[in-house]
Specification:
It is a single chain. This protein has about 180 residues and is mainly alpha-helical. It has a single domain, classed as Helix Hairpins. The chain is about 65% helix and about 10% strand. The chain has a two-stranded antiparallel ribbon with strand order 1-2. A hairpin with a 2-residue loop joins strand 1 and strand 2. Helix 1 packs antiparallel against helix 3. The longest helix is centred in the first third of the chain and has 63 residues. The termini are close together.
Length: about 180
């Protein structure tokens, strides 16, 4: 560390001691913040891993059913069946504060709670596999929104951890020699 030019007076000594005490206190607080952010980040990553697995399994089921349905039905019939949605979804986004990081929280509502409302077509002209694909996609929708929320949270927490780590290192190696 380069030496700083200081006037050799008591007032300057008192000022430097106060500055050092403040830096040490700030360093401790930032280290505690970094540790808590890491703990929160690890919890989010664990939840992300489990949820991603569940979403991928649901999407694989839906894709398999849709592939079979598209093989059984003509392309025009399939497009006509899925052209107009019968059910609409409202998505609300709020923010939650985690260690001074505002992370998104998604809430979604459907217009009706009827289970039959997810099918935008009549059952007479479509395959049962298409019903399975639509049902699987409807079931995985909430998990997909939660996964998007968790992934954005992990990204924001990682950025904040990086900023805090830089501040801790600056205090540790530059300000407090």
């Amino acid at each position: 560390m380069p030496a700083i030019n200081v006037n050799p007076t008591r007032q300057e000594l008192t000022r430097l001691k106060t500055r050092l005490r403040t830096s040490i206190r700030g360093h401790k607080l930032l280290k505690d913040k970094r540790d808590e952010l890491m703990k929160q980040f690890m919890d989010v990553v664990r939840e992300n891993r489990a949820l991603r697995k569940r979403v991928e399994e649901g999407l694989m089921r839906a894709h398999g059913s849709f592939t079979v349905a598209s093989a059984l039905m003509s392309t025009e019939m399939l497009e006509q069946a899925l052209l107009y949605p019968k059910q609409s979804v409202e998505l609300d986004m709020t923010f939650q504060n985690i260690m001074s990081v505002n992370v998104p929280v998604y809430h979604f509502k459907t217009k009706s709670d009827d289970a039959g409302e997810i099918y935008p077509y009549g059952f007479a002209t479509t395959s049962g596999e298409l019903d399975g694909a639509v049902e699987a996609l409807s079931g995985v929708l909430q998990d997909m929104l939660r996964l998007a929320e968790i992934e954005k949270t992990s990204q924001l927490l990682a950025e904040e951890i990086e900023k805090t780590r830089r501040r801790v290192n600056a205090l540790e190696y530059v300000k407090i020699p």
